[in-house]
Specification:
It is built from 13 helices and 19 strands. With 405 residues, the protein is α/β, with parallel strands linked by helices. The chain has one domain: Spore Coat Polysaccharide Biosynthesis Protein SpsA, Chain A, CATH 3.90.550.10. The strands form 4 sheets. Strands 1, 2, 3, 4, 5, 6, 7, 8, 9, 10, 13, 15 and 17 form a 13-stranded mixed sheet that branches. The protein has a two-stranded antiparallel ribbon with strand order 11-12. Strand 2 and strand 3 form a beta hairpin. Helix 1 packs across helix 6, helix 4 runs antiparallel to helix 13 and helix 7 runs parallel beside helix 11. It is globular and about 60 Å long. The two termini are 35 Å apart. Bound molecules: guanosine-5'-diphosphate-alpha-D-mannose (GDD). Guanosine-5'-diphosphate-alpha-D-mannose binds next to strand 6, strand 7, helix 5, helix 7 and helix 11.
Length: 405
């Protein structure tokens, strides 16, 4: 892959936010040299493959059409391990059952391994509780609904696979080629990162919409615009300089090293992605009391790469109310951050029409889970948990993805 160089970097303590880099060519051929002096940066196919072998791709899914899910699966590079975390209806039709069927069939045909679990499985909730995160459980004794919660479950499973990276792709993406490019970008970004604590966030090229019977490729996300603006204002409050560095506040498509991911608290619902920035600033920004467990991170720094894809993002449009709810959740987490200055708080309240923002659900880091207990609980009690093994031709006959810590 050939990408633009990010010339400028915004710093917030140990957090380095690189300005947006565009993909120049998705496949750069057989070149292996790294052209650090030219205007572009090459990440070789081998370097990308190396990361893919260590990459888990989590697919959060709630009631998406089977055909769309199948397309998404087909776009995930072969060497990545797939984890499906579903919150689909189980009645009157068991849609999760259909999803597992599609996943199993795909893995059988493609000769690959995968994991899947239903977010509302009582056995999963019991395992998470036993592993030490009762915060994730709601009043019904099940894991809270929400995309952020699904991502947390996915990250916990990923942490038990022995792989080093985790990425996320939505299940409602109509274009398998876009999913494929996102995963390639994750691998390229993680390979380029100058710290073991790294994150790659995708800024999609455009979102196609139909207007007057014509396709219009919109460059602006209605939620992202607001989220990015307020995150940049937060940065500017501390630096004293206006900035537009953050362009991926809502990036649903992102990947990170597990070394970093398991140390970060996560927010529930759609607050999850904007909260990642807030969490990085709070935890590694150097403003709050340092955590001795994170000394290494403070020394190496956290590298955030923002990369613009070539493919347009063609997905299910869930309506205006959904967009408003998403950006409100983003503003809620910025408002409630310990480092949000009073001036910015009042700007948020003004934007929200004078309403005081409610607090979102924030969960402890995955590193606080006892993964051995989680493994025991999930494998013994979660009836929805499926571990699809990969068949190998010679001697070793199967590869089982999950390992007990
Ligand atoms: N397991 C699970 N549980 N999956 C969920 C849940 C849940 O409670 N809620 C949503 N999902 C799945 C959906 O099925 C879809 O695959 C993905 O999460 C994204 O949800 P959407 O409701 O389709 O969100 P969106 O497409 O409007 O927003 C996406 O893009 C935003 C940036 O533009 C999301 O990725 C956002 O998180 C992101 O900020």
């Amino acid at each position: 892959m050939r990408l633009e160089y990010p010339y400028r970097t915004e710093r917030f303590g140990a957090v380095r936010i690189h300005e947006l880099q565009r993909v120049i060519e998705i496949d750069c051929g057989t070149q292996t040299y790294d052209d650090q002096l030219g205007p572009s940066r090459i990440v070789s196919r081998d370097a990308i493959r190396d990361v893919e072998r260590d990459l888990v791709v989590v697919v959060p899914c709630m009631n998406e059409p089977r055909r769309v899910i199948e397309g998404v699966l087909s776009g995930i590079p072969h060497d990545c391990l797939i984890i499906l975390v579903s919150n689909s209806d189980r009645q009157p039709v068991d849609r999760y059952d259909l999803e597992v069927g599609a996943l199993e069939q795909f893995c059988r045909l493609a000769d690959r391994a995968a994991l899947s679990v239903h977010q509302r499985d009582p056995g999963l909730a019991a395992a998470i509780k036993a592993a030490g995160m009762p915060e994730l459980i709601d009043d019904d004794g099940l894991v809270h609904n929400g995309k952020g919660e699904a991502m947390l479950v996915g990250m916990a499973l990923a942490a038990m696979t022995g792989r080093r990276y985790v990425g996320y792709v939505d299940a409602d993406n109509y274009v398998p080629g876009a999913v494929h490019e996102y995963c390639k970008v994750y691998a390229a970004g993680l390979a380029m990162a100058d710290s073991p604590y790294s994150m790659v966030r995708i800024s999609w090229h455009s979102k196609p919409k139909v207007r007057d019977s014509k396709l219009f490729f919109s460059r602006r996300g209605r939620s992202s615009e607001i989220t990015n603006d307020f995150l940049n204002r937060l940065l500017a409050e501390y630096s004293g300089f206006g900035t537009e560095a953050v362009v991926t506040g809502n990036a649903g498509e992102h990947a990170l090293s597990l070394e970093l991911g398991v140390r970060m608290r996560m927010a529930g619902g759609f607050a999850v992605e904007p909260f990642q920035y807030v969490e990085l600033f709070e935890r590694f920004g150097g403003l709050l009391a340092p955590d001795a467990a994170n000394t290494d991170v403070m020394t190496s720094g956290v590298s955030v790469l923002q990369i613009e894809s070539r493919n347009p993002h063609f997905h299910d449009n869930k309506g205006d109310e959904h967009v408003v709810s998403m950006r409100t959740q983003a503003l809620n987490v910025i408002y409630h951050s310990q480092i949000c200055p009073p001036a910015l708080k009042s700007e948020i309240v003004d934007f929200l029409g004078g309403h005081s923002p409610p607090a979102e659900r924030i969960y402890p880091p995955v590193a606080s889970l006892a993964l051995d207990r989680l493994y025991d609980g999930i494998t013994a009690e979660a009836e929805s948990f499926h571990q699809i093994v990969q068949r190998l031709p010679a001697r070793v006959r199967t590869v089982t993805p999950l390992q007990r810590a």
